[in-house]
What does this fold into?
Amino acid sequence: MSGLYLSRGLYPQEYLQATAAYILRVQRPWGEIPWFEGGHTDPWDHVEAAMGLSIAGENEAAHLAYRWLAENQLGDGSWWRSYRDNEPDNPDRRETNYVAYIATGVWHHYLVTRDEQFLRDMFPVVRDAVEFVIRLQGVHGEIDWAVDADGVPLGDALVTGCSSIFKSLECACHIATELGVTFDPWLDARRRLKAALTNKPQRFDRTWASKARYAMDWFYPIITGWVSGHAAKERIQARWPEFIEPGFGCRCETQEPWVTVAETCELTLALLAAGDRAKAVEVFSWLTQWRDRDGAWWTGYQLVEDVLWPDEKPTWTAGAILLAADALTGHTRASELFLCPVEPGQVKSKPVAAAIR
It folds into this structure.
């Protein structure tokens, strides 16, 4: 296939079912979704793969993935940065954007399924995760990227990580709204975080080299909703030549001749969010060449050496493909989650009966 050009209402079910089947093959019987067979699992990418399962209609497998997180949540609401075969793997730190992302996944699954019991069951897990994260918010509004094994903050913040948290706080507030639960502290934390991201760039990358060389710093502010409208279009245009390799995809870093499938999928979401559908369709169409025959997708391609690199097919890359395809086609009720942010309190559906204490 030379290219996959997706239109609204034309989700390629058969073509992408093999991608979901790949995630299912890698998922462990207890719900954990490693990067690939024999690989480790991290909470953020685990959720990304689980969202792909929801889009594909694999609801029981998605439920199992979220139950695995619930069963492994630590007493303070967090998770270790990685796991392997249901055990912590190098438990040296816990990362806030990893912890927060369960709110995005749970809300996404609820939008797809409208499963009210799932939302009720998962709310305590989301609540405790959010509380862990906002405890690490500084006086200037940024949220520390991680704590060490003893729970000591590591003393810096990431634009991409905090952008992801901003989206997760939006989703957590929506969950609370559906359940009739007060969420004012979460809303306040989200407002303060946006103010820091918008007005205090000096609060990020304070103790290491700027992460602006990464594509995620470029487009994550758009898909997480704190940059929108004309500003989003300007942001994309300003750095397009630095990151885009026409016909191949989006570079992960400006200085490396390496395009990656997941970053290109996320750029597709950013283009849709910025109102440039034609370019989003074109960019996504370049990715077909990086699909393997088993329905999985390679991490990326090294332009200079002309090789697929690394020799890995991550489940989270498969999840990103499914998320981008859903956004392009409007296949599920969650297809606009990363395109049209809804301010907390503006969800139109009725609250789920029985509030959660």
Summary: The CA atoms of residues 136 and 270 lie 28 Å apart.
